[in-house]
Amino acid sequence: MARYGLMRAWVIFLVALTWAAGALAAPALPPEALCSEETVRAERQYGIPARLLDSISVVESGRYDRESKATLAWPWTVTSEGQGKYFPSKAEAVAEVKRLRGRGVKSIDVGCMQVNLMYHPTAFASLDDAFDPAQNVGYAARFLKGLFGATGHWVTAASYYHSQTPSLAAAYRERLMKVWNASGSQVASALAITPVKPGATAKPVPSTLPRVDEARRTWREQQGGAHNEAKRIADAYRQARLSEYQLRRARRVESRKARGLSAGGY
């Protein structure tokens, strides 16, 4: 019996030692690599074209990194009232959102993908979750995939990620395509595969993945279709506004007639 107890204790010790060794062998990624790692993973999981989600993250929360000489998405980004701020830690970003809410500010964009907490109130269970790169990117990926399901076109879906107002979507699409055509975050593939030790500098490397080239070709082929679709959307928008105007005008005419009849006829 004593021998069994000793053997059991030894097995538990070996398991604990193995777990600790595994934890030490996988150093945490630096903050500037967290968004890229998650966007690459989400692209594969949800079948999103290579570097598209990563490029959106760069447009949404990117800041220039002097060490790597690249624009990288930053996980602790908070944008409100037209101003974006980059914080050195998650705790400080969470504190900023609480401060803004205390002032009555409701429209706040957070994290790698700048998910708006007012328009997506049920996206995260807590502010800590909202700034968790995996959860922030995961929600954005599902939202983008849903937009693709509704439009059947990745470029249009990416434009609608920002806004479905034609002029705003078009301006965003132009900015996004410049980033995507340059492979989004240049260090994404390297950082997603090889963890960087704390304090180490991530060196920019050009992406050579075949999927990137394929995505570029697909986008170029679809540009004409995207332009035509954008025109159709704009035309439909103008037609809807015209119909609204005509309806309001007809109501005003009917109202005047009714007032005239009431004043002179009875």
What descriptors fit this protein?
266 residues; alpha+beta; 4-stranded antiparallel beta sheet; two-stranded antiparallel ribbon; globular; disordered N terminus
Please explain how this structure is put together:
The chain has 266 residues and is an alpha+beta fold. It has one domain. It has helices spanning 2-25, 31-46, 52-61, 90-102, 127-130, 133-151, 154-162, 166-181, 188-193, 210-265; strands at residues 62-65, 70-73, 77-80, 83-86, 108-110, 115-116. The strands form 2 sheets. It has a 4-stranded antiparallel sheet with strand order 4-3-5-6. The protein has a two-stranded antiparallel sheet with strand order 1-2. Helix 2 runs parallel beside helix 6, helix 3 (52-61) crosses helix 8 and helix 7 (154-162) crosses helix 8. The longest helix is centred in the C-terminal third of the chain and has 56 residues, at 210-265. Residues 1-26 and 184-213 have low confidence and may be disordered.
Could you give a short description of this structure?
The protein has 266 residues and is of the alpha+beta class. It is 65% helix and 8% strand.
Chart the SSEs and their pairings:
Layout: H1 2-25, H2 31-46, H3 52-61, E1 62-65, E2 70-73, E3 77-80, E4 83-86, H4 90-102, E5 108-110, E6 115-116, H5 127-130, H6 133-151, H7 154-162, H8 166-181, H9 188-193, H10 210-265
Antiparallel strand pairs: 1-2, 3-4, 3-5, 5-6
Helix pairs in contact: 2-3, 2-6, 3-8, 6-7, 7-8, 8-10
